């Protein structure tokens, strides 16, 4: 039985993206396909993958085996720096679409800006060409800082969405302010602070007890209650179902304020001026 669907947000170019989806790194193809099938049944309609994850085929296989219609799901993937040119973005699309087994992709993103190459503006121009041709429904960036985005904005290439590392300890206020100013949706990768101990921390445990929820549900509710798109990864059926079961309660203002107080700034955030692939 299919679970309740997540609410959606309208992107600047018109597509609608669910507020919660399934992340797939670092699952292999077989694990990914199984997770996608479970997630479709649980009500997920947003699926996130990447060239670098090496599991795009698994996402496509899971979608096909689930029996859901292509038009009912929102597929997101990302490409690496070797494709950072106007024509390269188009070749990256073709390769990802072939691996996914689809003829269009809902949202294609540059995985990292790789500013040392200084080619990301041209690559986003290639995404805009693909959107104009109807092969994309939206264009995006991943791990872009405010100054990276400003170059795109100055070139008239405002993305629909920027996917960034974001959790209550890394609330990313500077880049989110740019997002709000220009109508860019924020998508959170590693929304549960994987490996950081966030879910075991006192504040999260206290709120989980107060609301009678799992710690992960508290953190995911914090994301979606602010209009952030969250893409938690799980291969465990119980957790896949649990993670999307967050739309029947709200955190109160005091608790949202408490979670805002956990923000430790940029410490621990991957530096996209120095790292990328």
Kindly summarize this structure in a few lines:
The protein contains 10 helices and 10 strands. The chain has 277 residues and is an alpha/beta fold.
Q: Can you characterise this structure?
A:
The chain has helices at 29-42, 56-66, 86-100, 120-132, 146-154, 173-182, 202-211, 215-225, 237-244, 253-260, and strands spanning 8-10, 16-18, 22-23, 46-48, 74-79, 105-110, 136-142, 161-165, 185-189, 229-230. The chain is α/β, with parallel strands linked by helices and 277 residues long. It has one domain (8-260): NADP-dependent oxidoreductase domain (TIM Barrel), CATH 3.20.20.100. The chain has an eight-stranded parallel β-sheet with strand order 3-4-5-6-7-8-9-10. A two-stranded antiparallel sheet has the order 1-2. The mean pLDDT is 97.
Annotate the secondary structure layout:
Blueprint: E1 8-10, E2 16-18, E3 22-23, H1 29-42, E4 46-48, H2 56-66, E5 74-79, H3 86-100, E6 105-110, H4 120-132, E7 136-142, H5 146-154, E8 161-165, H6 173-182, E9 185-189, H7 202-211, H8 215-225, E10 229-230, H9 237-244, H10 253-260
Parallel strand pairs: 3-4, 4-5, 5-6, 6-7, 7-8, 8-9, 9-10
Antiparallel strand pairs: 1-2
Helix pairs in contact: 1-2, 1-9, 3-4, 5-6, 7-8
Strand content: 15-25%
**Structural class, from helix and strand content?**
alpha/beta
> Can you say what the CATH homologous superfamily is?
NADP-dependent oxidoreductase domain
Please tell me the overall pLDDT.
97
CATH topology name, in short, is TIM Barrel
CATH C-level class: Alpha Beta
Give the end-to-end Cα distance, rounded to a whole number of Å: 39 Å
Order of helices and strands: EEEHEHEHEHEHEHEHHEHH
> How many distinct folded domains?
1
Q: What best-fitting shape do the alpha-carbon axes yield?
A: globular
Please describe the biggest sheet, giving its number of strands, its sense, and whether it closes into a barrel: 8 strands, parallel
Write down the Rg: 18 Å
**CATH architectural designation:** Alpha-Beta Barrel
Task: Order the strands across the largest sheet as they lie in space.
Answer: 3-4-5-6-7-8-9-10
Helix content: 25-40%
Number of strands: 10
């Amino acid at each position: 039985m299919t679970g309740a669907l997540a609410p959606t947000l309208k992107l600047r170019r018109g597509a609608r993206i669910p507020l919660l989806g399934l992340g797939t790194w670092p699952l292999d193809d077989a694990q990914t396909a199984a997770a996608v099938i479970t997630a479709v049944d649980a009500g997920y309609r947003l699926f996130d993958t990447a060239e670098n994850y090496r599991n795009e085929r698994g996402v496509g296989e899971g979608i096909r085996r689930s029996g859901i219609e292509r038009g009912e799901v929102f597929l997101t993937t990302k490409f690496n720096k070797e494709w950072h040119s106007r024509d390269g973005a188009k070749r990256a699309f073709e390769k990802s679409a072939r691996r996914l087994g689809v003829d269009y992709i809902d949202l294609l993103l540059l995985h990292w800006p790789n500013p040392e190459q200084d080619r990301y503006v041209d690559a986003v121009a290639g995404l805009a060409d693909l959107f104009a041709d109807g092969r994309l429904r939206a264009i995006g960036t991943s791990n872009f800082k405010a100054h990276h985005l400003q170059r795109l904005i100055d070139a008239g290439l405002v993305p629909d969405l920027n996917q960034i590392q974001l959790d209550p300890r890394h609330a990313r206020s500077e880049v989110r302010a740019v997002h709000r100013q220009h109508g860019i949706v924020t998508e959170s990768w590693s929304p549960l602070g994987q490996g950081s101990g966030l879910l075991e921390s006192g504040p999260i445990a206290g709120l989980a007890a107060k609301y009678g929820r799992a710690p992960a549900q508290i953190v995911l509710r914090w994301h979606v209650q602010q209009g952030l798109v969250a893409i938690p990864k799980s291969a465990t059926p119980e957790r896949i179902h649990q993670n999307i079961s967050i739309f029947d309660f709200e955190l109160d203002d005091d608790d949202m304020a408490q979670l805002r107080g956990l923000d430790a700034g940029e410490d621990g955030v991957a530096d996209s001026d120095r790292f990328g692939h």
